[in-house]
Specification:
CATH class of the largest domain: Alpha Beta
Number of strands: 20
Shape: elongated
Helix content: 25-40%
Bound molecules: zinc ion
Number of helices: 6
Strand order of the largest sheet: 5-6-2-1-8-3-4-7
CATH architecture of the largest domain: 2-Layer Sandwich
Radius of gyration: 33 Å
Largest sheet: 8 strands, antiparallel
Strand content: 25-35%
Mean pLDDT: 93
Distance between the termini: 72 Å
Order of helices and strands: EEEEEEEEHEEHEEEEEHHEHEEHEE
Amino acid sequence: MKGKLLNYDPEKGLFQIEACIYEGGGGQPADRIKVKGPGFYIESDEAFKEKGGTFWKVRSISGEVPKTEVEVDVVIDELWRLEVSQQHTAQHIFSALAEQLYGWPSEGFAIFDDESKIELLGADEDPEKYAQLERQVNEVILRQIPVRVYVTEEVDEKLRKHTDYEHPRIVEIEGIDKCACGGTHVTNTGYVGGFAILKVERKNTRYVRVIFAAGIRLARIAKNYIEREQKLKNLLTGDVEERVFQLLEQKKQLELEKKNLLELVKVQIAQSDEVFWKNLPLDMQSMKQIAAYCNEKDKDIVLVNQEGYFAMGGPNANMHFEAFREKGASGGGKGVITGKLTNNDK
Ligand SMILES: [Zn+2]
């Protein structure tokens, strides 16, 4: 496709271009484009609108861009355009059916890089209703209804949403939806290729947010999940759910064993004549429990683990702590005193 590069600001990394491309808006992201001119090449996948028009962000650039306007070749990422058009067309069908079936108008529509959202005004969260909606959207896809786009001379009061345009661009899916819209769409509902609601969540008292995906995007999401599941299977060596359940059971068992061992250890330590125990393979919580037990028994105890954390108790705990503090340890507490030695004094 031919186009015209109007200007390029190397400091901001922005350029303006005239071509038959979608510049974004109405919840739909812009085309992803490649611009080839005499001696330079630019890629962009983001545009925004400002007072001075639409600005494209440079993602990558090579060569020298001239200071004046220049004729260029523009190539659109057609798969991205299809993906976005599938989401957008699916949204028309979904929004029309949500309003028709349950009287829920759509607002706050947006297509993101990996998912799309619609916010339904006054909707509830009944899963049955969403299952029904999902099914009906897929039935409209199955029926392969043409998606007609035209500019009308008169404002039709039967539009799904109000428009202020005098000559609005109408997108019509016969018998399903008729709406003023400036976005890109597939030419037939069949090309939406499949639709799924991925999440339904309450946004606030007024709105329910629906996350959905259609077509090649839905396929990509499914593929990502299957790859992730396979990685987890390899990591866990077996069925993910089964193995997670087993591991949780094992964890419970180990915690119980740890608790029993700790009971045994704390009695042994309390009965021993030793006061100083260093380099213990215990965490702070376990040491605190032992120190608290010794404290109850009026037994002096100083426990230090391999990381240099300590817990102490007994009648002379304060004295032992002072000795530690003089060597730079930090910490505190009443009854049981806990803290950490300096790094070079374990
Ligand atoms: Zn549209």
